[in-house]
Amino acid sequence: MSVVEGGSDAAWSFDTLAVRAGQERSQFNEHSEALYLTSSFVFENAAQAAARFSGTEPGNVYARFSNPTVSTMQERLAALEGAEACIATATGMAAILSTVMALMKSGEHIVSSRSIFGATQQLFGTILPRFGVDTSFVDQGTVEAFRAAMRPTTRMVFIETPSNPLTEVFDIAALARVAHEGGALLAVDNCFCSPALQRPLQMGADLVIHSATKYLDGQGRVLGGAVCGAKALTEEVFKFLRTAGPTLSPFNAWVILKGLETLSVRMKAQSANALELAQWLEAQPSVTRVFYPGLASHPQHALAMRQQAGGGAIVSFEVRGGREAAWRVVDNCRLLSITANLGDTKTTITHPASTTHGRISAEARAASGIGEGLLRIAVGLEAPADLKSDLARGLG
Ligand SMILES: *Cc1c(COP(=O)(O)O)cnc(C)c1O
Question: Which amino acid residue places its CA nearest to atom 11 of ligand 1?
Fold first, then answer.
């Protein structure tokens, strides 16, 4: 294979890297990136097999370790995040689990924001303690609250910003300082913004974690995940992955790779649609509160505009009348898809208290501020006017 001339030119802008970074061409000189559906690779001779297995000669061995299509996707995402390296995983949760398994050991401690993805809360709160890794969940978004939760054994500070589903914004640069003062790493789940709107490594974070299932694919087709950061860290994640096996499938990598090419235009358009919808929701009498970082009414609007290039495409809002009223809005949707997925070009609506956050205890949910009247919309590319009329029916 030959690397395309200037294939990883650091001088290229984001939009160019999104389309070109990491591409290699085979002897067929294909224009679009090739999909290599092969589980293993053939060696020239016994000596080469031995050298590939021992790692003294770089190259592909077996697709649990590496695959050219997966490598291209990793290089492209690393370029977009401004990361030295990227390791792709089977899902976003596999990325979070692999990071913890690779970089932490029994007796060490995580400080995490409370407002994180439901499965991440479950992983940190109920599974990791069985292996001697405890997590302190921080209820308030302030830097002081994070600092107070640090222990001598804290190895990782974990945040999701903006958070799911309340779009709380966390100060990445300030929390990187808190983590580093305590000898810990800052890991940021950058799912909601994607590198098109936010690049945490440039603000001092050590690791960026992705559910590629969301905006990186962008059209709701495949599951995937990734960990980006310094090579010294991603190498450890790779060692865990090649042994334990939650590797990304080459087919999924190829879909995500092609998704990255349109990431920038999608994020801009979906953010603009989300802002329009959020402003409209704010004016509806049955809506008591709208959560969207792009609104001036958002408590961390200034911080969001400082560290994000847009508000993102997730809008949450509280309707008067609790679960009954919220379900009425959902059940009256004919256009919006009733699904918990997000990051799709098709707009989705979900009731977090009974779906994504349903397995969490009512107390923990209340502590996270996820009320019975809360709805989350992941805004897609449909015309905002059509989305408004679909929602208006149930809002009454
Ligand atoms: C979906 C999601 C995850 C988990 O990703 P999967 O690909 O579903 O495993 C993690 N974090 C956030 C913010 C998510 O939205």
Answer: 117
